[in-house]
């Protein structure tokens, strides 16, 4: 998932360099959403792993 967030971020940078502001803004928003989903899933898996190890 983090890979896809980075891909959309790179697409946004390239689109911004070529002057496609709307496409760049859309790619940035998609990258942000995917990155936050990745963070939530990472924290949940970390907590679940710690709970399982403790019991």
Number of helices: 2
Q: Termini, distance in Å? A: 29 Å
Low-confidence stretches: none
Structural class: mainly alpha
The tally of domains stands at: 1
Radius of gyration: 16 Å
Sequence of secondary-structure elements: HH
Mean pLDDT: 87
Give a nutshell description of this structure.
The chain is mostly helical.
Written overview of the protein:
It is a single chain. The chain is mainly alpha-helical and 55 residues long. The longest helix has 34 residues, at 21-54. α1 runs antiparallel to α2 (21-54). It has helices spanning 2-17, 21-54. The chain has one domain. 91% of the residues lie in helices and 0% in strands. 5% of the residues are buried.
Produce the secondary structure layout.
Layout: H1 2-17, H2 21-54
Feature tags:
55 residues; mainly alpha; 2 helices
């Amino acid at each position: 998932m983090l890979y896809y967030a980075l891909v959309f971020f790179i697409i946004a940078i390239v689109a911004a360099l070529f002057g496609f502001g709307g496409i760049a803004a859309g790619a940035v928003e998609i990258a942000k959403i995917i990155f936050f989903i990745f963070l939530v899933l990472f924290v949940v898996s970390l907590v679940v792993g710690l709970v399982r190890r403790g019991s």
